Amino acid sequence: MIANYGYKDGSGDYYISIDTDRCIDCAAGRACLTACPKEMFEIITDDYDDEVACIKQANRRSLAYDCADCKPSGGYASLPCTTACTPGALKHSW
Amino acid sequence: MITAGIDMGSRSVKVVLLEQINVDSAPQLQYAVKKAHLMMPGELDADQAAERAFSEALAAAGVARDDVKSVFATGAGRKQVAFATEGVTEMTAGAKGAVYMYPNARTVVDVGAEEGRGIKTDAEGKAVDFAGNEKCAAGAGSFAEAMSRALQLTLAEFGEASLKSDRTIPMNAQCTVFAESEVVSLIHSSTPKEDIAKAVLDAVASRVCAMVRRVGIEGEVVLIGGMAHNPGFVKSLKGAMGVDAVSLPDLPEFVSALGCALIAAERQH
Amino acid sequence: MNAQVAEAVAPEKKEFWRWQENTWVDESKDWRDAKIVTCGIDVGSVSSQAVIVCDGELYGYNSMRTGNNSPDSAKNALQGVMDKCGMKLEDITYVVGTGYGRVNVPFAHKAITEIACHARGANYMGGNKVRTILDMGGQDCKAIHCDEKGKVTNFLMNDKCAAGTGRGMEVISDLMQIPIGELGPRSFDVREEPEAVSSVCVVFAKSEALALLKAGYTKNMVIAAYCQAMAERVVSLLERIGVEEGFFITGGIAKNPGVVKRIERLLGIQAIDTQIDSQIAGALGAALFGYTLMQKQGAAKAA
Fold first, then answer.
1. For testing the chain A interface, which of C160, C161, C233 should be mutated: the one with the most A CBs within 10 Å?
2. pLDDT 10s digit of each residue in chain B, 269 long?
3. CB within 8 A of C223, min separation 6: which ones?
4. Domain made up of C135-271: CATH architecture
């Protein structure tokens, strides 16, 4: 399952998507939990009883701002979260 | 030589007439603002509004239209200014105006009615980077305005009220429409209006600040745009940015129009 | 002071955005004949539904406006349908809560997210050919892709921004002073289809709508422009998860043809038709999840 957390508003699309099939048996030791400086990730048991990472509820409506520190407008070569997620389950839409 | 800068904002039109007085002096002493004029377009179309505002400014300054060497326009509606020689972006105009007034300014925060943005500038007043949250009302003055309406306060009273609060109530809603319901329920739960006002201004400040952080905070920070009139917002912004001082121009809403007029003057050489 | 403010904020005026509440039970059946009676309760931000499922078949539902708190809204929604068919809480084997207030449904045995429930409900209402589901609720919009069993394979939810939600529609209904149920039909009563309102943000779209009226647009044209904007926005959300044939719309907006027909036009796909109230999909899915769980437990006991 692809779980997209975030939103689209007048200013653009801000989604972090998690491919739960790649996330279930995490080969990276849940590195996303500590990689994110804002600690936005958490592990939940989803509706189909799989243990997967998700974005905390408190951050889902403010990703454009919450992720701003990792995305200077001048450009950032690599994001801490997507770099830490070696199975490649994590993607940013912007 | 006289040049004009017209800032076609979403709510108001700002006109600055600038006169070059001494070519050989330092940049700050070269120019004098002859007239700063603001007009609310009301029922007028954008092109009519620009024309009217410009005529009013000329009349008030006693300047003949033919004496104006060049007119530059900026703002969301800059393309509607038919008589402008050229249009420049809000970033370009804002940076130019801010650095002219504050030579050490390197970070310009511009918060108007419908747009909020952070601009990084060099010593010449050239915008080198910017980040904004446009086309969403939550990151700009209209968010605060909508909430002040729900509290039945003017925007000025709203700002004053927030200064009286030292409580921090988080606002869950990120959208202006949803936040209105949240404010109404805060009113129903007898939350003091001072605390609500602070919560609202803190929310706008944190969004604006996140955008400014994207360009980096360095040098002197200048706040321009209409929200600079709101002391509550200024306090919230300082808190969010973690800075002790933010420079506030006397006429913050005219800084972009001023920058525009300066660029028009420089291009004459 | 606060009381005065509150009064001023909610002045007595005609509420154009009000929609109909309703209750229904399948008169051709008797729930007393069923082996397993399960219930799903969807407490949304604007409306709450309770659905009764007998042996995996839809039996009855009640849909009403969400009150001040989730537990009471859940109770009232359920009471409405139980009263209609003479049922008591102890007659129900299993209750599943869903919706944004799902953790506050007092008698629920389990809480499941509305994403999974809507997919399951749509799978029942539209059949197993349903792949793409759009749910436009009161304060959110969900785009879901699911497999033939109604299991979610891709989803997104937007509850941050009012654009593309029922709330956004309520704002325009209030602005135009036209009952929300009339917006759809009126949006087609125009000589030619206007361009969509260009602002996504509801606040800016509102100013744009007023400017259009000033510029000589009729109310119907403004409504059409707004419906088109809403359709375009929703389609952009659907495109993120990928649109496939087997398209199903749930939630209150499904009742607004002004938006639905425009979405269909943009996608080039017809939405699957259903006789069942589109607003109950979440609660229905929840009740069906409850039924599956009971079946599994029964099987476990038998084994």
1. C160
2. 999 999 998 889 999 999 998 777 776 678 999 999 999 987 788 889 999 999 999 999 999 999 999 999 999 889 999 999 999 999 999 999 999 999 999 999 999 988 899 999 999 999 999 998 778 999 899 999 999 999 999 988 999 999 999 999 999 899 999 999 999 999 999 999 999 999 999 999 999 999 999 899 999 999 999 999 999 999 999 999 999 999 999 999 999 999 999 999 999 87
3. C172, C176, C178, C183, C186, C187, C258
4. 2-Layer Sandwich (3.30)
Q: Which CATH architecture has domain C13-127+279-302?
A: 2-Layer Sandwich (3.30)
The count of domains in chain B is 2
Structural domain of residue B72, as residue ranges? 2-101+253-266
Shortest Cα–Cα distance, C285 to chain A (Å): 12
Instruction: Please tell me which residue of chain C has the smallest CA distance to A17.
Output: C156
Numbers of helices and strands, H then E, in chain A: 4, 5
Asked if A10 and C153 come within 8 Å (Cβ–Cβ), the reply is no
Query: For chains A and C, what is the number of CB pairs under 8 angstroms?
Result: 58
Our measurement of the distance from residue C206's CA atom to the centroid of its chain's CA atoms, rounded to an integer in Å, reads: 23
Statement to judge: residues B13 and B39 lie in one domain: yes
Any chain B CB within 8 A of the CB of A75? no
Q: Do B74 and B149 have their domain in common?
A: no
DSSP letter for each residue of C154-197: EEEEE-S-STTSHHHHHHHHHHHT--HHHHHHHHH-SSSPPPPP
Instruction: Report yes or no: C38 and C53 within 8 Å, Cβ to Cβ.
Output: yes
Does the beta-carbon distance from A10 to B135 stay under 8 Å?
yes
**B188: in domain:** yes
> Which one of B120, B214, B215, B241 makes the best mutation probe of the A interface by having the most chain A beta carbons within 10 Å?
B214
Contact status of A7 with chain C (Cβ, < 8 Å): yes
Domain membership flag for residue B218: yes
CATH code for the domain in which residue B166 is found: 3.30.420.40
Please indicate, yes or no, if residue B106 is contained in any of the structural domains: no
Are residues B158 and B257 part of one domain? no
Tokens matching residue C289: 């999840």
